[in-house]
Amino acid sequence: MGPFVSAIRAVIFDMDGTLYDQRKLRRKISWEMLKFLLANPTGLIALKILRDFRKAREKNASLIDGNIEERQFEWGARASKVSVEKVRKVVQNWMFTRPLCHLDAYCYPGVRELFSYLKEKSIPVGIFSDYPAQDKLQALNLEVNVMVSATDVEVDRLKPDPKGLFVAASKLNTPVKECLFIGDRDDKDGECARRAGMPYLILNRKRRNWSPNSFKTFTPLESSAIYAGDKINMKPQFLIEGGVKAPFFLTGFTEIIEWFEKSRK
Fold it and tell me: 126: closest CA among 1, 204, 19?
């Protein structure tokens, strides 16, 4: 395990659901939307637009149409039967602007400590997110060396397409196999890393703050180079590619620091 971690020269993070608790944030925004709807019943269309926008993005994730930044709003407009501009306005307000003031409260424990640790060790940090991340990073008070979004012109591909990881690694001036990608969804982040051939770590959203004693066994997946914990849920607690078996104590960001420290000695 030591040689693997020592070979990591850069760390790339997913944003939503990885650095902050997206579920709690969505509940908070849903409550704000409910209050808004009670005062403005006609605003129900905004709820439908958001739902259709997210579903359309998931449905079309594998399409390579080009100009994803614009196409995503067209998909949403077609699903909701409203104008593209209406979708853009609702999404900007409820998904990108209103949540910013709440992000800091839902930042996962240990995130800032891990970022500080990586900076101290001169390990550059990147972000690869399906959505623009600059405003979110500012709200979280986090600094990174490289920021890449799936909607950037040079990427123009949604996860699990690996192009964004290739772009991020290139901007970090680090070989793909010497980067570690940390995310929260195996179907998106894990698959993206597998296609790129990049080592990766998947943090389980439901069990991230559980006691280390909850995870004592690991089950090999498709190959001997990939391992997963959390047999009970049949969902991977972490996945590491590159012949490394993730230790059971890796349930959060503080534990990742411990892992790096123990493995780099």
Answer: 19
